[in-house]
Amino acid sequence: MQSLWREILADLRSGNKGNTRSILVRLLGNRGFHALLAYRVAHRLSGTALSFIGFAVSRMCLIAYGIDIDPRAKIAGGIVIYHGIGIVVGRGVTIESNVVLFHGVTLGNRFSGEGDGFPYVESGVIIGTGAVLLGPIRIGASSFIGANTVVAQDVPPASVIRPAPYIRSPINRARRSDVSG
Q1: Could you name the CATH architecture of 2-161?
Q2: pTM for the model
């Protein structure tokens, strides 16, 4: 029970630099913190005779905030969830401390059959809006995963991963007239 309180306090303090007012605002009105709180309660209850209550808490969080964190995931204290809507964290995911998740992030498996696993996210990682991390991959410490990036391979520590740049191609007018004609 004591580690539960430590994790909750670490979640409250992360991203706030000890500012008491920010901690109060986060405690009362931050859906990312509320989702982590619900996860922590559900996680403690999973695998016990009261696991159905943990599942119910997890589902209520999904309904209220649109954040789906499986109670069987392993998430250290000190996590920050910004905006939160659309986050999915699968059952086998492990997230170390001081990780930042933006809305629309998916951490899950690839459903490719036997031996497929879940991502392991090391400390200090920032995962941008809409990023998708799939399969038994390891995201190295202090890495940055850019918005709308799909990652299915290991990422070394202190890396920046971003989607392919936007490439503008001119329209071939002759070919276009053949199609429309």
Answers
A1: 3 Solenoid (2.160)
A2: 0.83
- At 6-57, the pLDDT tens digits run 888 888 888 665 566 677 777 788 899 999 999 999 999 988 888 889 889 9
Calpha distance 85→115 (Å, rounded)? 30
Spans of the chain below 50 pLDDT: 176, 181
**Could you identify the residue written with the tokens 């991502």?**
119
135: tokens are 């399969």
Single-letter code of the amino acid located at 163? P
Angle (deg, nearest 10), helices 31-45 and 51-65: 160
Domain boundaries, the chain: 2-161
Whole-angstrom distance, CA of residue 100 vs CA of residue 125:
6
By C-alpha distance, which of 67, 71, 94, 69 is closest to 82?
A: 67
Integer Cα distance of 35 and 167 in angstroms: 38
Q: Which helix (H) or strand (E) holds 21?
A: helix 20-29
Q: How far apart are CA 104 and CA 127, in angstroms?
A: 10
